[in-house]
Amino acid sequence: MLVAACDAPALPRAAATQRPATSASGSPAADNGGTKLTGDACRVLTAADVQSTLGVQVRQLPMGSPPPGGGPDTSLVSGCTYAATSGTVAGASVFLFRDMPVDFFATVPGYTKVPGIGDRTYLQAPRILGQKGRMTFQITLVSEADDPKADDKLKTLARIVASRL
């Protein structure tokens, strides 16, 4: 089984800011040699949350560097990826951004607005993007094939994340 530890954020490059990274609570993030990443994403979406939603055992994969598009000139503050522990290809990634607008996705073909999750949320499986206050989250599902319940799983995970931001 091969599952990528980092999924490239789908947020538009033009929306990136030059602000220093902060944690989900707004406090400065710890420096890790240039790009400032925190462990906040792993606290707002835990392995237990992913296991419960996907119905498979998962483990957290290490993330030693930011994903493509998540360098020092962006508002990425945290990321966390979980992968199935068995031979099943399944998992989820979550990335947190500070002051990253998501309204752009209202005009992207294929994305649909999802009411009732955070302030604004848009879905196109296997990805859901939402905003609550100044924090933006992106959750991506990984699976072997088209999952007919992917939309419901993404919404469940997004509700969990939004409730913890």
Summary tags:
165 residues; alpha+beta; 7-stranded antiparallel sheet; disordered N terminus; globular; Protein Transport Mog1p, Chain A
Break the fold down into its secondary structure elements and pairings.
Elements: H1 40-44, H2 47-54, E1 58-61, E2 76-84, E3 90-98, E4 112-113, E5 120-124, E6 127-132, E7 135-143, H3 150-164
CATH structural fold name: Protein Transport Mog1p, Chain A
- Structural class assignment: alpha+beta
Q: Please give the domain count.
A: 1
Sequence stretches where pLDDT stays below 50 over 5 or more residues:
1-8, 11-36
What would a concise description of this structure say?
The protein is of the alpha+beta class and 165 residues long. The chain has helices spanning 40-44, 47-54, 150-164, and strands at 58-61, 76-84, 90-98, 112-113, 120-124, 127-132, 135-143.
Description:
The protein has helices at residues 40-44, 47-54, 150-164, and strands at residues 58-61, 76-84, 90-98, 112-113, 120-124, 127-132, 135-143. The chain is α+β, with helices and mostly antiparallel strands and 165 residues long. Strands 1-2-3-7-6-5-4 form a 7-stranded antiparallel beta sheet. The longest helix is centred in the C-terminal third of the chain and has 15 residues, at 150-164. The radius of gyration is 15 Å and the shape is globular. Mean pLDDT is 78; it is low at 1-8 and 11-36.
